[in-house]
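DUF4124 domain-containing protein, pasting as requested.
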Amino acid sequence: MVLLLVLGTVAQATDLYRYVNDEEVTVVGFQVPPEHVKKGYEVVNDKGVVIRVVPRELSAEEQKHADAQKRLEEEAAAEQVRLKEWDEALLLRYSSIEDIEAAAERGLGDLRIRVSIIKSNKRSLKQQVENYQAQAAEMERLGREVDIGRLQAIEDLQSEIAISDRAIADRQVEIEAVEAAYQEDIERFEILLDMVEFRRNMMAQQRAEQQKTTHDPRR
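Structure tokens follow.
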């Protein structure tokens, strides 16, 4: 049952609101009572055509579910963009798995050279510490007091050695991250190659079917 509230000829040129009241009766009027706004309503023109739908207000549980669903959709869209950009970059930079492996070897080679340089410097620092310690031990053996400058030099060198150790550890973490990244590139590129091969086979099969249909004397 539809109860139409006619409030004058001016209403013909004014948008109307359609909602369901507490008696489950559909009502059309110039406004929606505040107690019914949360239940949702429709905005219609003077011909009864729906212009806009205002949905009902969600419960706390429904809103929580809607927010979670929205987050999932946003994450899925972001992942789609990430994979698309990744695929495009791989196809632009490489033409084969061997290309990726060669790039990985170059990148890792540079990092390993840096580690080698740091380790070489560390060995030099340790040698200097050992020299100062030997000098200090000899002075103590002769009953002489080890000078502050020498002790300070040993302390400074040991601090530099500790810094070198941290730098080596950081470079090793970087090497592992680069190795993992290139391995991911290889695995993704293999998927792309499989897809390209699949599409190539499908196209070949379709062409074969078309040629068979074209040359079939019974058709």
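Note for the archive: The first helix runs from residue 34 to 37.
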